Amino acid sequence: MISAVLIANRGEIAVRIARTARDLGIRSIAIYSEADAGALHTQVADEAYALPGNSAADTYMNIPALLDIAVRAGADAIHPGYGFLSENADFARTVAEAGLTWIGPSPESIELLGDKIAARRVAEEVGAPLAPGTSDPIDDWQEARAFAEEHGLPIAIKAAYGGGGRGLKVVENLEDIEAAFNSAGREAKEAFGRAECYVEKFLTHPRHVEAQILADTHDNVAVLGTRDCSTQRRFQKLIEEAPAPALSDEQRTGIHEGARAICAKVGYTGAGTVEYIVSEDGTISFLEVNTRVQVEHPVTEMVTGVDIIAEQFRIASGEPLSFVSGASDSSSSSDASEAHASEAHASDPEMDGHAFEFRINAEDILNGFAPCPGTIVRFEPPTGPGIRVDSGVRSGSIVPPYYDSLVAKLLVWGPTREIALKRAQQALQEFDIEGVRTVLPFHRDMVSSQVLVDHGDADAAAGIYTDWLDHNYRPSAEATSTTVPVEAIYAQRTRVALEIDGKLVSVGFPTDMLSQGPVKGASASAASGASDSGNEVTCPYEANLVAWNVEDGEMVEEGQAIATIEAMKMESAVKAPSAGKLSRVAKEGSRLEPGAVIATIS
Length: 602
Description:
By secondary structure, this protein is an alpha+beta fold. The chain has an eight-stranded antiparallel β-sheet with strand order 13-12-9-10-11-14-21-19, with helices on both faces. Strands 3-2-1-4-5 form a five-stranded parallel β-sheet, sandwiched between helices. Strands 25-32-30-27 form a four-stranded antiparallel β-sheet, with no helix packed on it.
């Protein structure tokens, strides 16, 4: 059994792994960047080691530094979590060559299934349905245009080695293909170290449905049910639920067995997720395989009772899945993949009730879900029946601008979907985070909306699809009024009990406001990049200027995307607040502070 594990990650997943390791009697070793000094995961782990620098490349993706710490700390295993190096076959191979246990699938499986084009070929071999797509990476945007002209719009430009919505661009107009191709490549290179892309036909209004896989080295491949992850912004998930609702028995069986066959075909071991899209007419199309534990894995744990992280440790230690009765203790033979493909040896766990997961991101819903780094001055999670919160922060935690915007996950279980939704409504009302903007107001809107209710009804005309939010969501009046930026002056708050119409209400006020009178807070940053001076274009938040979309001195129109900025691994467009002649101020590649002037328009 593993005795000490280096957790090559940060935030809530590092906390989650450390706590499971403690349950199993395994010593946990955390790492942290300069920005993460004092972060919650460094306190929960048994030990913590510093990584100089802040960028992902210098810290959490610095393979030599990670291996050096693993050796110095006496680790005999490395758990990569999700993101960063979790799907990097070279890292997995290097870990094994160093004599350490890699808690994940083999480098060969990561390499094969991490290549989205190769994974498509495997899916085709086992009979999984596929939308039209390129069989090899494309070299330039002209190839994407040619594909669109042959198969029609919309198309999806996807990072061949990407995932999590990064490096994925949906294009509905031919003139947008060049910019989308370049942006997809940049995002993929930044997040995954490789920029290759491919193209496939995009099915309109699809639902995102996935199957959770656990496979051991004893010829057991188990499917832990389905998840629906259709509520997304810019193709990054915000709400997940398990099991996926509104599927027929035939569809559910097809998804389960397709996932099992794909993983069995390549001799997969460990935790993995096989993703599909389900179109309006019920057509199922294979999407990709994520060769790691997913952000949303706890929602499956809520309905199966299986600790997926603990199972990862068991699998890496050579043990069979804990929930499989009569599992063989012998190692799988060289013909294991063929045996898997022909027969399911594992007993899939039964589903119990229904669960939702709500990703709590530090983002501004009034500004296109722009990332909002800062300091959390108050973090008060909800409690109650069926409630679980996986968090990487607490009161006083810093949300740095260098990494993903996820700070916590709210899990809600109920014996039925209806009860789970009602519990979610209450839990989201109780959840209180102050100091940074979060997506909590969005989640409160969604659990009170008819569209999320209808999403669970196969006969309902309405439902959520993967880009529904981008086209249809408008913050409610309550969300608009409660999403208020909190500046440094709000660092200390005093809660005051007020009686209003005979009802006792607890209200939090900035201490300085009570002592000095009203304090005028900053308004929500304009997505257009407008400034008070009118002719200046400013950066709405701390970010990198990755590209100019127009030339210096070019005439621009109001609302035109003039530059691309990146923060928390997401790219966003800065739009011209007015028409006129643009003069650049900032250079590509520069780091921008909130409010920094990047251009002027005259």
